[in-house]
Structures are given as structure tokens and as C-alpha cells.
Amino acid sequence: MEKGHISVQTENIFPIIKKFLYSDQEIFLREIVANATDATSKLKTLSARGEVDGDIGDLTIDIILDKEAKTLTIRDRGLGMSEAEVKKFLNQVAFSSAESFLKKYKDDATIIGHFGLGFYSAFMVADKVEVVTKSYKKSVKPVRWICDGNPEYEIETTKKDFRGTDVILHINDESTEYLEKSKIEELLVKYAKFLPFPIRFGTKTETTFEGEGDDKKSVETEVDNIINAVAPLWKNSPTNIEEEQYKEFYKVLYPYSADPLFWIHLNIDYPFNLTGILYFPKLNNSMEVQKNKIQLYSNQVYVTDDVKEIVPEFLTLLHGVIDSPDIPLNVSRSYLQSDANVKKITSYITKKVADKLNSLFKEDRKEFEAKWKEISVFVKYGMISEEKFYEKAEKFALFKNVDDEYFTFEEYAEKIKANQTDKNGKLVHLYTNNKEDHFSYINSAKEAGYDVLEFDTVIDNHFIQQLEYKLKDTTFVRVDSDTVDNLVQTDEVKESVLSEKEQEKVKGIFEKVINDKGSSIELKALSPNDHPVVLTKPEFMRRMKEMQQLQGMGMGDFPDSYNVVVNTNHPLVADKLIKMKSEEKREQFADYLRKLAMLNQNMLKGEALSKFIKQSLEYAS
């Protein structure tokens, strides 16, 4: 048996780095600025331990653009490197200085990088990279390292007046967009907006005003263009933050959004480290447009806004930031890897959100009810998709009826059990998805002593099915799915004032005038006070159709069907229609009654509606 070592050809590594290591070319700037931040953080740690002589002074990181020379320089005033360290950390791919530093100072340091590959992302946009560095150790000479994107490099001693490292990128001809000031500022704002040390990108003009009244004049001053806020709000203790500060920070994150409803401050250091602020936005009955609004940071470095691996699907409707060095990333920091820590973080965030909603409900129910319309989509989505969230949410989730009254699930079951328990012992929850369209149906139900709920969000079809599965002996019936006497099925039977022969005659009349595909005709003995003709949409078929529409599927075998229910006890049927002498008049009148029912369902439009109005005027004259 022969054993050996797999050989990696170093001349092949640069094409791989340039093309495949990173998902997005622009990440090079984030990686190099993050390295500068690490170097600065290391220096600060060593200084705090008394291992650096004297005051460490200004720790600002500079981004310097020279369009004419086609260079972009990232300059830090961190701990710098010796020649031996340059050879160790720059010439050995995937040998990260952060890794060794963390092992030595793991209790004191906050370091971003771990893989040792971020530096090489520079070669995605540069055909040559220079590193000029001077160690914090005064006896160590500064060095210059140069590489043009292949395994060969040059290294020499040089002159450098101050401690730290300059990484100079000679931008290649394919990447000249990174020589534009606006582009670099855009990337710095995206990736470095909350780094813990000042990031300076040249200067900017600030306008101030001096004097008063007619003597008031504007004064323009050149000041440092500091990109970032070094102490973002989520790093502060919640006890030290005012409500207005939370709102102001939200405006920083989402400048054109309406104020959030409320927020949750995340702050945990065991069994993992995680901080952040999650905001509840005004969803306005919308879901998709709100996704990718949570920003993920690792030690204040922006990583991504695609957080579905660490945040349950329903929580992606929230806005805000999550910052954790304990979320494992792959080498590019662009994608998350699923492991036990991620699952713990997911559970923690879900619990914190549920606990916050529950406390709001308990502390001020009226205020919670006032916000229910805004947060109901979020809560319902969570209850459908996350079992643990459902268990907590059923304590504070609300039903709202058409009279704008709110009930917990238990409260509502108690309210309706006397009048809305059917012959099989099931609680029948009547509901509407449109109060205006179903006005007459709702009135009929209320006159019968029933209560009607309102379900009008984009997710309610799914939510109703979930509740029917979860709640014992419970069914949901839309108020227009049947005649009022059959919404809550009982053994009571009403008698018709028409004989069987007269009923057959009435049915025959309506069969001649109704030939709509998918419709059926049914005669029922309803109250004389009910409508003469009622259109109902069968609950099962309608649900299937709506579910398919929501999922963007074809309608298949689910036509837009409805039942035409003729009330044989209504005077217009039992007296007027049956006693008409002319067959033509009977058919015209039956058609009129059918259209009256269609009008009640908003099914008459355009020409059909115009003809109906004309026909109504003829009957009235």
C-alpha cells in the first residue's frame, strides 16, 4: 500500500479565486476593509493588555481613490506586519492571521476574518496588488509586497512614516467602475456603514449658517467624509435607548419607510453571541414585497440580506439587523451554513418575537387590537409555518368580526357555541372576505342570530385550513356558501307553501332561463323575509379555486360554479311567478329574479347591468 500527499498546483489557484471564490465581485472591498478593521482591532486589544508602547492615537481607516493612477488604496493604522509575517500570511493561501491571533487572545479580541482568503478577492478587480506595511513594533522595518495575480511575488524593505498597512489595488481594465467615487461610496455605505472604527473616504462639503435675519449667510466647510457610525444602536443596552432613537435608527436603515409598529431588541451572549433589533413594519396586507429586509452582520460587517437559513420564513417579513460572530459562514461570507448554532439562533429569535407579541397583548390589549390589522398577516403566516410559534401565538392571536370586535380563539368559541353548533357538534365559524360584497348575506346571518368573522388578508385561505386542522370540532363556512338556514346545519325542516307539482313548475321555469356552465338549481323553503333567489358558492369548490389562484396554478377542474337557490316561500315566487299566465312573462320574471341575485353578488357588469336596470324600471312602471 502506498501513501502520499495530494499536490495542489499553486499556479492554478488564482484563476479559481478570480472566477469562483466569491459570488459577487464587489465583495472585494468589504473583505479588504474588514481585514483593515481586524488589524485595528488587534492593535487595540494588544494596547489594552499593555503590549503596545505609548498612545495608539488615531485609528481611522482611509479609503483613497486615485482615478488617474487607476489605484484604490485601503489604509489602516493597525498593528502592521513584519517581513516574516507578510511571508506567512500573504504567501500562504488560506493561512489566516486572524485564526492564530484568536487562539492567543480569544477572550479579548473581536475578529471578523477566519479563512485567510479575503485578501485574495482583490485580484478579482486588480491586475496588481501592493501591500506596504509597518509593524507596531518599533524595531521592525517596513516592507513592500507586490504580486500581479500569479504565484510569483516581490518583497523588499521600504520606507513608511507611520504604523499600519496600505493595500494598494491597481484596478484592471475590466473593473474601471471601481475607480468612480460614487461607486466606492455606495459600496462603503453598504458594507462598512456600522464598522467599529471610523472609515474615511476623502472629504465632503458641509454647509452651516452664521448670523441672523438679513445678515444670515451660508458657510461651506470641507470636513472628513466619515462613512460609518462606529457604535450602532443594536450594540447599546436596551435600557439606555429611548423610543425616538429606535425610530431614528429605523429611518437610517429604511429612509423612505413609514414608522415601524414596534420592535424587539435582541441581546444574548450565551450559548451564542447575538445582538440586533427587529422591527415590525406596516405590512398593509402584503407579503412578498417585504422580504429581504433583515440585514445580517458579523461583528458589524454587512454580510447579506438573505437570511432565510437563520430566520424562519415568516420572520423574513420583519425589518432590522442581526449581528452575530457565531453564525458560520462559508469562505466568501455570502452564504450561511446550517449547523446546530444556526438552529439555536432560529429558535431563540422565534421565541423572542412570540414573547414580545404576547407581552404587548397582555400589557395593553386595546393597543394590540388597534395594531392587529397591521400584524395579522405576520402572525398568521407564523402560525401556519412554525409549530412552536403556533403554540405560543394561539394565546394572543385574534379573530375580528364584522362589527370590529376582537376575540381570542377561546373567547370566540364561548361566544358562538350556543347558536353556532351544528347537528354534528361542530362549532361553525361563519366568515366573509369582503364585507361590502357580502352585505346582504351578513345581514341575513345576523338576523338569524349568528356572528360573522372577517378574513380579508392574502393568507387567510391557508390560515383557515390550518385552524380547521388544529382546533377541535371546528369548521369555517363563508357566509355566501349556502342559504342562511343551512350555514349551521340542524335537523329542522321548513315546509314549502307550494305543492310538489307547483315546485316542479317553478324549477322548470328557472331551468329554461339558466344555462350557465357550472351552475345548478335548487328549490328551498326559506323564510318569506329571505331573498326570492339566492346565489351560493359551494365552500369546498370555492376554496380549491382560490388556493389554485393563490399558487398561480391553472383552474383545471374547478370551474367558477355557483348554486341558484329559489326560495319557494317568497311572495314573488309563491304568488307572483306561479300565477303568471304567459309562459314568456314567467321566464322573463324568473330571469329578472336570477339577475337580482347576481347583482347581490356583484356579478352584473357593463351591458348586463344596464339591461337589468332597464328591466327593473319596466317592472316598476
Automatic annotation (TrEMBL):
Residues engaged in binding ATP: 31, 35, 76, 81, 165, 333
InterPro entries: HATPase_C_sf, HSP90_C, Hsp90_fam, Hsp90_N, Ribosomal_Su5_D2-typ_SF
Keywords associated with the record: ATP-binding, Chaperone, Nucleotide-binding
Gene3D superfamilies assigned: 3.30.230.80, 3.40.50.11260, Heat shock protein 90, C-terminal domain (1.20.120.790), Histidine kinase-like ATPase, C-terminal domain (3.30.565.10)
GO molecular function, one term: ATP-dependent protein folding chaperone
The keyword ATP-binding is assigned to this record: yes
Superkingdom, natural source: Bacteria
Pfam families (alphabetical): HATPase_c_3, HSP90
Secretion signal, residue range per the UniProt entry: none
Recorded family membership: Belongs to the heat shock protein 90 family.
Family annotation (PANTHER family): HEAT SHOCK PROTEIN 90 FAMILY MEMBER
NCBIfam families: PRK05218.1
Name of the molecule in the record: Chaperone protein HtpG
Lineage: Bacteria, Pseudomonadati, Bacteroidota, Saprospiria, Saprospirales
